[in-house]
Amino acid sequence: MDVYKSLQEEAFEANMEIPRRQLAIYTWGNVSAFSPSQGVFAIKPSGVPYDSLTPESMVVVDLDGKKAAGSFSPSSDTETHRVLYREFVRLAGGGDVSIRGITHTHSPYAVAFAQAKMSVPVFGTTHADHGAEEILCTEYMSEEAVKNNYELETGNLIVDTFRRQNKNPLHMPMVLVAGHGPFTWGKDAAQSVYHGAVLEEVCKMAHITLLLNPNQQPLPDYIIQKHWNRKHGANAYYGQKK
After folding, report:
1. Which of 13, 125, 148, 200 could form a disulfide with 107 if both were Cys (CB 3.0 to 4.6 A apart)?
2. Alpha-carbon gap, residue 164 to 105, rounded angstroms
3. Active-site annotation, residues
């Protein structure tokens, strides 16, 4: 439908960044683009190779899980995306939380931390530039949850992890699901993929750091805060003035 054309195009372009950035191979991974005004998101179709995708093949789904447009079945991770769009609004305090894109990849270093069931400490300024706290890894999903509705419960697990840790998803736009892999989000679909690429690089750096020094401690908080604030604080000065 033409009414969803721009949303499908946004989702398509973001999904094509996954193979470009080597964040997944074959049909692995997916990106969605959310339109709050329309109450729907466009997402990659399930099991379709990246080189076969078109904007028209993006599937449009509403927040109740009903398909609004598209001839394909949506990604098997659609329920996870749906939970995050719905629940992150509440976690971030309501209103327009500016989370309009979600990415799931199977990038090797991020998956390795997820498989090791390890959160990622802030070892250096690259991490601090994009998040002033550790990247959380969830607990394993319970057997009961897996048997219930695996993808929906994956979303619930992510939300519960942020809620129990009293974390705001706007402050750290990425998470690792234990034994599974990463999910990232952003102000649009493109930024959510960007955060997926950042997460992979940060995990790669953390992995190398732990190989060199298994006892390495996180960066001192005053350095973490300096790097976070110079890009995101009230007096940020990184980049060009608009």
Report:
1. 200
2. 24
3. 129, 238
Query: pTM to 2 decimals?
Result: 0.94
CB distance 17 to 190 below 8 Å: yes
Backbone angles phi, psi at 164, to 5 degrees: -65, -35
Strand partners, 35: 40
In the chain, which residues have pLDDT < 50? Answer: none
Place of tokens 């969605």: 32
Q: Hey, where are the domains in the chain?
A: 2-232
CATH 3.10.20.340 for domain 2-232, yes or no, is: no
Per DSSP, the three-state class of 90 is helix
Residues 99 and 88 sit within 8 Å (Cβ to Cβ):
yes
105: amino acid identity, one letter: T
Q: Give every CB contact of residue 187 below 8 A, 6+ residues apart in sequence.
A: 98, 99, 100, 101
Alpha carbons 61 and 79: distance in angstroms, whole number: 10
Alpha helices in the chain (DSSP H): 5-20, 78-91, 108-115, 125-130, 143-164, 189-212, 221-232
Instruction: Round to whole Å and give the CA distance between 160 and 165.
Output: 8
DSSP, collapsed to helix, strand or coil, labels residue 129 as helix
